[in-house]
Amino acid sequence: MSGEMKRSGLSKGAPAPRFSDLESLREHLGDCARCSLGSTRGRLVFGVGDPHAGLMFIGEAPGRNEDLQGEPFVGTAGRLLDELLASIGLARSQVYIANVLKCRPPGNRDPLPEEVELCTPYLAEQVRLVDPKVIAALGNHATRHILGTDRGITALRGRLFQVDGRRVVPIFHPAAALYDQSKRAVLFDDFKRLRSVLEMPEENEPAHAGQMPLL
Length: 215
Known about the structure:
seven-stranded mixed β-sheet, 13% strand, 7 strands, 8 helices, Uracil-DNA Glycosylase, subunit E
């Protein structure tokens, strides 16, 4: 039903084969042509960062700069993400960053359902291998997909959820602050909350999935 939490998007689709590490998974993907994006992208954008990070960021899909460089969150939005991380005492090398899609949709359009279905099992395998304690869902599409909801990021940011045994924190996409400066202060506040979630003792977690109170 619209507006209600559904099954996590990371649990949907046929599961990917199990791999021993991220490098093996990347090699398996190769020059991926499992959907039509393989013929329009520049470079596949797999992920970057600490392969055993406690904090994992998941965005929607690569943009133009990511497509050119083969790395997620570069360019102006990437520099803002680095600034946000530094504000809570972290560096890019201490977290892991990935996207729902590994390839840029033409013209930066929204991902199509069939593209998400094909790519999600590989994202789920990335999550399994990194095994983060906390996932930060960046922006509308990533948040809706991970939480299995139709609700938007504006309604969900500032809250804490538990999905598949992991804490999930919805946050505005850094690119949003490039178009709306009022969101810049909100982003820095959200990262302060994210720091609190990282430091939250495990005994504060509920035994069931769903919304948790945010400190």
